[in-house]
Design a protein that fits this description.
By secondary structure, this protein is an alpha+beta fold. The strands form 3 sheets. Strands 5-8-12-13-11-10-9 form a 7-stranded antiparallel beta sheet. Strands 4-3-2-1-14-15 form a 6-stranded mixed beta sheet.
Length: 332
Amino acid sequence: MQALSDHDTLLTTHVDSEEDSLHFSFLNDDLSYSVSPSAMEVVLTKELNESLSNSSFKLKKNYGSPVGDDINTRHVSGKKIDKKHTQFALSAGMMLGIRECVGGMNSLSEEAEFDETARRTLEEECLRVEKVKIPAGAYFITSHMASLPYRYKFKAYAPHIFSRIRKIAGVEKQRFLHSICGNDAFIEFVSNAKSGQFFFYSNDGRYMIKTQTHEEKNFLRQILPDYYNHLKSYPHSFVTHFYGMYRVKIPEIGKSVHFVIMKSVFNTDKEIHKIWDLKGSTLGRRSNRGEGVHKDLDFVEGGRKIAVGQKIKDAIMTQLKLDAIFLAKMRI
């Protein structure tokens, strides 16, 4: 399971020219830190984000982008998947299916209680599959209205479990829909991943959509009860946050794709100047000349260190150990 086994930690930095300080943001975006290059002392610069229920932004329209959202999307680069793109029909089916399965989910059903102490019940929820059929001629709302020529068959795996995971992570349902099913198209992300799967950004960069092999899909379903319990116990886990798992099928062209929606490590309002993809390994972990993403050996050989103070260091190391125990238990 590539996304889980890599156990990535992505570090982003930006420089404040007025304060002459270096800012760090980790995968957990609740806190960011400001480091003075001269003193190398850490100052807490941002408390826990206010809950969306207390935020004052107003919505443009049902599935539009929120007004007043200051997320920085300049680092979200790639080709927009418009009607001329080879993946347009696929991405449109993804959006339509999620809109029906998440947006159309009955609120009482979505919040339905189940006895989490009963292992059997939890496992049953993790195996639940909801199916949606979308007829040909359905209208797909992006920047331009388009009537789709294909019919779609869509599956949502463990929808109640992933709904709860989103809630645990503080992902508000309507905002999730704005990002994934808004009036803007996905953005193609060119990846050098060895898995051969392809990725999309949501238009605002909050989420990544990654295709899955059948083996990856089956494995995630297998470990889902333990994965859910881990995130429930440790919501700030560095393990990849999965917010949904689906399958879209286009019978007319014989195309069927499984995919997951993940939290994007690029979801930040900070300006990103340099990126390291850190896996905690030295094997093959040096970037090639000219690559924009640096790796573990580049970080070490460059003599770089992260100064966050003892308290924050202890919290990070504790969570990494808990995550490592979970991954070992899952034999990842």
